[in-house]
Specification:
Shape: globular
Strand content: 35-45%
Helix content: 10-25%
Strand order of the largest sheet: 1-4-11-7-8-10
Length: 225
């Protein structure tokens, strides 16, 4: 039992902060990217004074424990949103719909997300459909099976649609990038920032776990702290 505990401890710290990267909807990094604290990966939300004024994705590509064949597994994450001086979150869209929010995301490419590429290759990019959290101070948990009923692609097609289920299964079987997406209105990917440079907010990953139990029939998971 000791070697099992030791293996789990090693996997828990296998993802370093520099392996998580934030980008906007066009693949550009905000002025302050993610960094490591003793028990969290921290990503500040940019403000309107920055040239890159939103964070649309926070992902990792360098985590073999959390990529590859995830089909039939489960993604579980816990995170915290901290704010100072009562910031107002804003979206790069004027469409009605959902408030600024965060949801789970994965793709089959290691390249930074770009909306034009996603629109041309929609079934390489997948978001949780109904599992999301409104951006507000607090500590939250998101969990979603990597199964067709929970995800939709870059153009909004549900993985449960028989026309798109095979593409979802193929993508979920070859995940190369995984993490979070920030959006609102009608869109999952437009990015979120804060309106006033005198205020601030940060997104803190407390853990991000991929369990492949349903796929492999054994306990095979990794956790990032």
């Amino acid at each position: 039992m000791k070697w099992i505990a030791w293996a789990l401890m090693l996997s828990a710290f296998s993802v370093l902060a520099e392996e998580w990267h934030a980008v906007d909807v066009w693949g550009y990094a905000p002025p302050r990217n993610s960094y490591k604290e003793p028990r969290a990966v921290v990503a500040p939300f940019p403000d309107t004074s920055s040239q890159i004024s939103s964070m649309a994705f926070l992902t990792t590509t360098n985590a073999p424990e959390m990529t590859g064949n995830l089909y039939g597994g489960t993604i579980t994450t816990e995170f915290e949103i901290r704010t100072w001086n009562s910031p107002v979150f804003f979206l790069h869209t004027s469409t009605p719909g959902l408030p600024p929010n965060v949801r789970l995301f994965f793709t089959t490419t290691t390249q930074p997300y770009r909306v034009d590429q996603a629109n041309r290759n929609e079934t390489a990019y997948w978001w949780t459909w109904g599992e999301w959290v409104c951006l507000a101070p607090g500590r939250y948990r998101l969990q979603a099976p990597v199964a067709a009923g929970w995800w939709s692609d870059a153009l909004g097609h549900r993985a449960s649609d028989p026309a798109y289920s095979p593409a979802f299964k193929a993508a979920a079987s070859q995940v190369r990038q995984i993490g979070f997406s920030f959006g609102g209105g009608y869109f999952f990917d437009v990015g979120v920032g804060v309106t006033d440079p005198n205020t601030s907010a940060e997104f803190r990953i407390l853990f991000y776990r991929v369990s492949r139990d349903r796929l492999t029939g054994r306990g095979n998971q990794a956790t990032v702290y």
